[in-house]
Amino acid sequence: MRNPFRSEQEAFRFLLLTIGYFALIVIGALINKWVGVAVFVVLTLIALYFAFLRERQEPPPRHAPSHFHPQTERRILVVANETVGGKALQDCIREKSRGGTEKLLVVAPALNSPLRQLTSDEDSARAEAQRRLDTSLAMLRDAGISARGEIGDSDPLQAIEDALRTFGPDEIVISTHPEGKSNWLERGIVSTARERFAVPITHVVVDLDAEKEEIR
Questions:
Q1: Per-residue pLDDT tens over the stretch 42-58
Q2: 206 and 119 in one domain?
Q3: 0.90 cut: is pTM over it?
Q4: Which residue, of 13, 34, 58, 199, is most buried by count of CB atoms within 10 Å of its CB?
């Protein structure tokens, strides 16, 4: 889970402001019920204003890889879940691996339903992601491409951020379903990733239904 505070000092300042916020509301309520309500409304509006102003003024931080590796080695991070075994993605990986010096990491975020997330039931989601990941890695090995894989955070953006720290990719490939079928595209995952991460990003669209028709 991402930390909303950039330093311990910022977190401590937020704590003090929160204590002051509730203290002023309690003092106002002790004077008069309506004074307490007025204080609550005014302070809440002020807090929302400054939060909105800060979000508008500060550009989103761009995260760069923090894991260094030999300059002769090129690292590619592939992020995909249901489309991880798609032919379009496999073709893209083969194309990018022609140099022979590439090191590949395939990350499959363990996507889960809101209900299962609420009940902290992630086992089935991780098992499904692992099954698809194993199939994809086997297909890559059959094509002569060496790659390793791992299950990532359920939030694909957090999964990418984690990989930037531990793997240090030079390029990121994000695979999604087509427009209209992709939850990631609806959530703006690809566009947000391009804004947030200072690494070249390739977006691959995998139409699994169309690929099945081609096989038939």
A1: 888 887 777 666 555 55
A2: yes
A3: no
A4: 199
